[in-house]
UniProtKB/TrEMBL annotation:
The keyword Oxidoreductase applies. GO terms for molecular function: electron transfer activity; FMN binding; NAD(P)H dehydrogenase (quinone) activity. SUPFAM superfamilies: Flavoproteins. This is General stress protein.
Length: 174
């Protein structure tokens, strides 16, 4: 399965989790995937829509990897959705994206138990990511269970634990 991993992190050099996931995926020769640092590609936010649609056309699965900021994705990812997922290409009678798979790879600053009805955020991640599930239904995509890494700032997420998480990520990409 050909997979396009789009990493939407506005400062990947300062990221521990997203940088580790991206690097591990890039160094997985057994997978048929392309890993793309979207902020490096579009630092000026001028998205090449035709190129993005070409890349997506060639993929069987689209993976959106991003840090969860203020209950949403970074700005470039939202702009990518607005511009690339256009009528006639992503939806409508002649849509070409239907039938592909979509997976989210999300990192959070908070610990897992803070993302529950009883927790600090008063909602589970499944609720907070619902717009993406609805988007996949609208576009005719198959929504894969998200890969979520909680606790970006947790003291127990040392280098060994992060390497294990990155290995889990690659296993999910298989």
């Amino acid at each position: 399965m050909k997979t396009s991993v789009m990493v939407f992190h506005p400062n990947i050099a300062r990221s521990r989790i997203n940088a580790a996931l991206m690097e591990r995926a890039q160094n997985e020769p057994e997978l048929d995937l392309v890993v793309r640092d979207m902020y490096a590609l579009y630092p000026d936010f001028h998205i090449n829509v035709e190129e993005e649609q070409r890349v997506a056309d060639g993929a069987d699965r689209l993976v959106f990897q991003f840090p969860f900021y203020w209950y949403s994705a970074p700005a470039l990812m939202k702009q990518w959705e607005d511009e690339v997922l256009s009528s006639g290409w992503a939806y409508g009678p002649d849509a070409r994206i239907a039938g592909k798979r979509m997976m989210l790879a999300v990192s959070t600053g908070g610990l897992k138990d803070t993302y529950s009805v009883e927790g600090k955020h008063h909602a589970a991640m499944s609720e907070l990511l619902l717009p993406y599930r609805i988007m996949t239904q609208y576009l005719g995509l198959e929504f894969e269970e998200p890969f979520i890494v909680h606790g970006a700032y947790a003291p127990d997420l040392d280098d060994g634990a992060l390497a294990a998480v990155a290995q889990e990520y690659v296993a999910r990409l298989h």
